[in-house]
Design a protein that fits this description.
binds adenosine-5'-diphosphate, translocase, sulfate transport, alpha/beta, ATP binding, membrane, 2 domains, single chain, Rossmann fold, cell membrane
């Protein structure tokens, strides 16, 4: 699924959060929205998701205008910073959730759901946790479960908002590799928000540097790091 964002604007009161953004994301690409806090990354991600409506501009999936389409119709999967796993449900029930809440007509059978959940748990190498509760897992394991859960509904687009921000450095490094590996296996178009240059450099095919609601530069990690296009990008990336 390709994503096209054309002249998108979003303000909160007098504050311009997203300022005339144009962006193209190719099918299967793993893209990082990178920038300092308050630069509009999350707002842009939420506009792509359909969790936030832009004031103006167009969002297209595979060339189709979906600007006014509801989040539930867009076929997106999410992972948030604070693993929004349901505490009262087992790991199995958490991963199965998106499938079990489908309308009866499109809901897979119990056996199909079980097969899907176990294959996803195997993919994140946590099949042995199926009957446990989130509180019995480490932070890194929970976030791998959150990834499995987001993938259960076979999203056309996977969106992650500071997915590893709450974890310590070692676990974060491990999860970056997980994200990259899962992405390469499933090849779903993925956009993740981070303020961590290293994370963007290690994981992404393409980095989009944002500042004050605008895109300062975009390109492969090498392009952005080797030839920063302006003093902001140079300074921001220099502060690793
Ligand atoms: P980032 O993800 O880069 O940190 P955000 O997109 O979260 O940036 O936010 C950009 C700015 O927009 C922030 O300064 C924030 O205060 C403001 N903002 C975001 N969401 C809202 C909201 N719902 N209401 C008011 N202001 C908001």
């Amino acid at each position: 699924m390709s994503i096209h964002i054309q002249q998108v604007n979003k303000h909160f009161g007098n504050f311009v959060a997203v300022d005339s953004v144009n962006l193209e994301i190719k099918t299967g690409e793993l893209t990082a929205l990178l920038g300092p806090s308050g630069s509009g990354k999350t707002t842009l991600l939420r506009i792509i998701a359909g969790l936030e409506q832009a004031d103006s501009g167009i969002v297209k999936f595979n060339g189709e205008d979906i600007t006014t389409q509801h989040v539930s119709e867009r076929g997106v999967g999410f992972v948030f910073q604070h693993y929004a796993l349901f505490k009262h449900m087992t790991v199995f029930e958490n991963v199965a959730y998106g499938l079990t809440v489908r309308p009866r007509k499109t809901r897979p059978s119990k056996a199909e759901i079980a097969e899907k959940v176990h294959s996803l748990l195997k993919l994140v190498q946590l099949d042995w946790t199926a009957d446990r509760y989130p509180s019995q897992l480490s932070g890194g394991q929970r976030q791998r479960i959150a990834l499995a859960r987001a993938l259960a509904v076979e999203p056309k687009v996977l969106l992650l908002d500071e997915p590893f921000g709450a974890l310590d450095a070692k676990v974060r490094a491990e999860l970056r590799r997980w994200l990259r590996r899962l992405h390469d296996e499933i090849n779903v178009t993925t956009v993740f928000v981070t303020h961590d240059q290293e994370e963007a450099l290690e994981v992404a095919d393409k980095i989009v540097v944002m500042n004050k609601g605008r895109i300062e530069q975009q390109g492969t990690p090498e392009e952005v790091y080797d030839t920063p296009s302006n003093p902001f990008v140079y300074e921001f990336l220099g502060n690793v």
